[in-house]
Amino acid sequence: MTDISIAGLGAAKLVVMADGLLKLGDIETAKALYRAALPKASPQLQRRIHIRLGVAHKVDNRLVPTFKALDDLEAIPNANVFIGDGLATWLKALPFFEDQRFLDIAQRHADLLPIRNWHWNLQTALWAVAQARKVPGDLVELGVFKGHTTLFCAEYLDFAAWPKRWRLYDTFEGIPEDQLDAGWSDVNRRLYGDTFTFEEVRQRFAHIPNIEVIKGRVPEILHERSPGDAISFLHIDMNNATAEIAALDVLFDRVSPGGVILFDDFAWSTADAQRRAETAWFAARGEQVLPLPTGQGLYVKR
Ligand SMILES: C[S@@+](CC[C@H](N)C(=O)[O-])C[C@H]1O[C@@H](n2cnc3c(N)ncnc32)[C@H](O)[C@@H]1O
Q: 206 with 256, same domain?
């Protein structure tokens, strides 16, 4: 029998082999072949490999169907396919792939989030933070986890040079038991149940002196350590309706005209309780949140 070595195989063949293994569920060998193909691949193929490595990052019952969808969509000529968790686009522009700075910073911090291929979500957050530059007031994030989204935006936009402050609030102990929404507790525990510390997150932001990481439970902590009287950007990402509605009660009136409120989970089917509660909260004030295909919800204050 002839010994076969992958050293002599080109990138395209390695990707075909890896794709086959992924469909069969042999994730680890598939990932090893994708990595072996990367240095030999054209920029276009590298992009497709990075998307595949993102899809293969989390091994669960979504992986093989998601990969099959990717594979099928790529059969459309010039489809420019992108696939992440709960979002597939094709025949759409992918501006972040033309922005090496975006890709480098996103890649540097990718391990801080349990989900990969988060580019569309980061693109929305980056837009919202950039808007805040010209709007009076400071920036606020409620629900920080390991700091992924804020770190990405702050580094990309060189927030350290802005004459503003950004206050980040989290229990750093997960969602309080009495705030867990029915139906989503297991997903939240699995995705965000990692052990990490407040101090670790504080250190991660130490190079950005105008960012303050604050440990405490929302809404109580917002009274103890106020984020200020004027807010230009409010990122709400606490994965539960109780805390997010309580935060709106405290902070909505402080958001400046032109300021953006970005909900991270508003349009995920898994976060039904949040969307229903927030839709009703805004409707009572004659307002609406725009549900985005990324799963985020966007509101610009009048
Ligand atoms: C999805 S994670 C946040 C992800 C983060 N925005 C990012 O970009 O990486 C949700 C976070 O909300 C926090 N959280 C949930 N309820 C909270 C509450 N009542 N007060 C403070 N933090 C809370 C959890 O501890 C968890 O770290």
A: yes
12-46: pLDDT as tens digits: 999 999 999 998 889 999 999 999 999 999 999 99
Residue reference for tokens 């990707």:
15
Ligand 1 closest atom vs CA 112: 9
User: Is this model's pTM higher than 0.85 or not?
Assistant: yes
Per the structure, the count of domains in the chain is 2
Alpha-carbon gap, residue 164 to 210, rounded angstroms: 7
Q: 177 alpha carbon to ligand 1 midpoint, in Å?
A: 13
Integer angstrom CA distances of residue 161 from 202, 204, 209, 229, 260: 19, 17, 9, 21, 21
Residue 22 sits in which domain range? Answer: 6-92
Residues 25, 147, single domain; the answer is: no
Give the mean pLDDT of 228-247: 98
Q: What is the pLDDT of residue 118?
A: 97
Q: What are phi and psi of 194, to 5 degrees?
A: -55, 150
Counting from 1 in the atom list of ligand 1, the atom nearest the Cα of 148 is: 9
Mark whether 123 and 82 lie in a shared domain. no
Residue 25, pLDDT score: 87
Q: What is the 3-state secondary structure (H, E, C) of 109-137?
A: CHHHCCCCCCHHHHHHHHHHHHHHCCCCC
Within 10 angstroms of residue 248's Cβ, the number of other Cβ atoms is 23
pLDDT value for 1: 53
